[in-house]
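Service request form, structural biology core

Requester: graduate student, group of Dr. S.
Request type: structure prediction, single chain
Budget code: on file
Notes: please return the result as structure tokens.

Sequence provided:
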Amino acid sequence: MPPPVTAVLDAGAAWLPARLGETERLLEDTAAGHGAALGADATATLNAGGKRLRPLLVLLCAGPGADAAAVRAAAAVELVHMATLVHDDVLDDAPLRRGRPTVVATSGRSGATATGDLLLSRAFGLLAAAGDADAVRLLSETSVALARGELAQRRDAFDLSLGRERYLERCRLKTARLFECACLIGRPRRPGAELLQRYGSLVGLAFQLLDDVLDVTGPPERTGKARGTDLLDGTVTLPLIEAAERDPELRSLDLAELDQAGAERACDRIAATGALESARGEALAMVAEAKGLLDDVDLDVEERRLLGLVADGVVERYS
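Core staff response, request fulfilled:
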């Protein structure tokens, strides 16, 4: 676990580590239980690590009384997240994820597509087996939003006329909606769900903005992928949008013709405009707003503190 997550676990030592451990064991059992080939690839995806922020949010919003239903929901949310990563790597033909070879690099497009499909189906299987219709509906609606966000990103590829509102809407669909889902699915029918949904959206947006900044700054040994991968994929992010407003010559970039050296030069030009500091500032403001919302939710002192630590951890991870 990365330091921002271990800080939350240490603070919630009375109950949180045990629930997250149960979630991890459920993920392991789910990944390994469906044939040797698919099981190996699903397990490799799980073992590649990750911050586990989404299942952590499920458990925190469920609170100290988090039960087996909350653990299932936490695992289901993480399985959907894992599935989207595997499918993204298929679409991008990505060789690395978190510094390790991707499933598509080791097992080909067919194997990776099947692995992502398995992870997605098992997420709903966990919830359906428990008869949790509300959780199935919520995760289903969220999965549709994730697909819409991915389609929007593909549609917007290489388009340097993209504006910030279109970018933010895409981030809401592709990233923030799963953070929202994590908060709602962990707190069914409890007061303050709407505020926690907004908290999740803001934390998810900040997460994506900072991730896009990190793609420009690198280095690969920290990000697990080449610097400027978004540019090479034709993905226009807020740092490039804001940099082009300050340096209009950046609009003449031919993203489709960039090689790795050209992407790194473009990253240097983006950084020189001050756009990265602006994007970071926007993300910090989102985190501050998210933490402020917690004051109006019916939470005990520990729950509020732990959710604040999660929001702070998003910033710490990318500082």
